[in-house]
Amino acid sequence: MSNILTTRSGPPSAVSRTSGVTVIAQDAGLYGLDRPGTAWDWMRQSGQPPTGADWVRPKVADAWARCVDEHHLPTGVDFAPRLDPVLTCPEDFELWRREWSSAFTASLSAMAYDFRSYLDESSVTLVLCDPLGKVFYVLDAGLNIRPGGVAMARIGADWRECNIGNTGIGTACLLRVPAAFNGREHFSPAFHPYATAGCPIASPDGGIVAFVGLITDRRDAASLMLGFLKLACRLLEANLFDSFFSTGRLLRLRDGDVTASSSGPESLVEGLVAVKEEGRISGVNQSALHLLGASTHIDVIGKELSSFLRVDLAACEGFDSVVLAHSNSGRPLRVERRLFGPLTNVPRARTERKSREEPSDTAPVAPFSALNAEWRDLILDAALQKAANLQAQNIPLLITGESGVGKDYLVRRLHGCGSRKDRMLVAINCAAIPRELIESELFGYEGGSFTGARSKGKRGKFLEADKGMLFLDEIGDMALDLQATLLRVLESSEITPIGGTRSIPIDVRVVAATNCSLPDMVQKGAFRRDLYYRLNGVQLWLPPLRERPDRLQLIAHLLRQEWQSLGLEEEKEPSDDVWRVFFKHPWPGNIREARNVVRAVLAVTRGRRINIDDLPRDFLQEMNVRPNPAPASLDEAPAFADERASVGRPVDAPGELADWEARAVHSALASSGGNVAKAARSLGITRATLYHKMARYGLRSDRRIVSRN
Ligand SMILES: Nc1ncnc2c1ncn2[C@@H]1O[C@H](COP(=O)(O)OP(=O)(O)OP(=O)(O)O)[C@@H](O)[C@H]1O
């Protein structure tokens, strides 16, 4: 290395090392060299950022130069994130987070089912940051990256470039444009094991409302992630669009002639235009700008719609009516119009922070007047709406999510509001029925067909559910040979009872649910691929409680429900500390656990105020599990100095949840002497979930392994 450290402008140019052709380094590994890595080593030793573009991409060289010259960050060392007291205003962040969390939750939840499988399959973690680069939402608690997760994938982490060096997220926040970096293109070595990408989410008036960031430990995946991220942000913007307006009209624009069946390739995201009563444009998304022939928001906001679009709005008065219009350049467009409805629970647009002087609620995580607030479960509503549409089209549904997130609850609500609500909903827990009985349970049997059979025979669950709904819960636990039989029935819509010769036609809507990863099971040969595709017409994923930004409102709702059902006269109100615990707790048993905790609390609390002492002991102990630094994953985790200092504190970050969870699982197994059923009971989760978690953390239930640490 030392021979290439002689120039102050960077490592020697690629020109001298190759055949005289100037090569712009795009990626690590060009000509077998880790080019950004070499440049980074050079920067570490010289203390200077490279100035040439032939060893790192110009964007990387610029970012490194900013880190050294403007942010004055130390080169080549793992440094603690800076905390700038002027830019870091916790009250602002809290206000902002509260205001936006539910809007993002609703939009994200509508997309999360689709996002989730991408994130899981590609080991990517998603974070949402406020306009200054502070994380207010983490989609998978950072667990996708590796057990332990990246320390910065936690709520409140500050990703600004001046704080931690260039990352896709911090640099996107600074430059207000999408950005992505591969491993050694990051200034801080803490990010060298990762690739990061960030992209702004624009509000309809052209402001920036948030940033979406992706982090993966596939450190060469930056450009791949960026492509996906840009598209995801356009979809998210479209989903959020409505939440900025309460009055006026929304026009949906698509390319092409209303009468033409095909008008060439279309943008995946339709154009959205918000128009005030008096006909002025108050908001547009990127696709609409393109369709209207404008380049920036400034060109259109506040201008008359008629100066961009020749359309007879009265003609699309009716619901679902679409009319043909033309942009001023003569481009044919299909236009659909609707009124913005009354919005509930969703904040109005505000892309600027409130001034510091405004009164703020200083309790950091308490849901203010959540106990009295009217609250709607937008995540459940979004899932229900999607499920109902799919059911109407007879598309099979597979509901996934951890134990206790509400899969069963969703199915019951779905049945209650669907066209088959007057027919039976028949639920089968595939894990609970003994293997040898499941066939007769599902398909029934003819009288006297086997020893012990009833003389009159028995109708199976399929027949009971005829014209209604059949809910196959814990489908991942069904034995392989039965999977083949089930598939046959689903394909043919006929059953033959055991001992019978006659096939009986059936008409059932099948919904399946699982907390296992069926794709993993398919991979391992434990679940039939063809059955997986048959059941998985569309997958609905319900997020774990710890990942729900509205978890405090949900817990407040459970509290209200429980005290009403107990007929208690005096309302009970959790203290701020209790709300903080509820917010930070990892809730491995999800909503089921929350309901149990709320019930226990109501049983012991005397007086109006619920204090920390009223919380169940084991629930509190779960928060104080002290992570040992033993596992390799912790040592290797690219934590910053102050993040490391937090080890041993009560868990307070989704990024630390994997450690917490691994240890909670470990300690439950250790105290149950390796008895999985007992350990699962003590954690408030099902056995299947516990096995899943044990596999994730490489734990086995025998005494030797469990007592290893
Ligand atoms: N959105 C919700 N609002 C209020 N209560 C809920 C909600 N979702 C679930 N619950 C409650 O949480 C508990 C667990 O829900 P449910 O049994 O549907 O979870 P699940 O995902 O099916 O769990 P498992 O995978 O272990 O079967 C139930 O008491 C249910 O009433």
From TrEMBL:
Residues 384-603 form the Sigma-54 factor interaction domain. CDD domains: AAA. SMART domains: AAA. Keywords: Activator, ATP-binding, Nucleotide-binding, Transcription, Transcription regulation, Two-component regulatory system. It comes from the Bacteria. Gene3D superfamilies: 1.10.8.60, 3.30.450.40, Homeodomain-like, P-loop containing nucleotide triphosphate hydrolases. GO terms for molecular function: ATP binding; sequence-specific DNA binding. GO terms for biological process: phosphorelay signal transduction system; regulation of DNA-templated transcription. The keyword Transit peptide does not apply. This is Fis family transcriptional regulator.
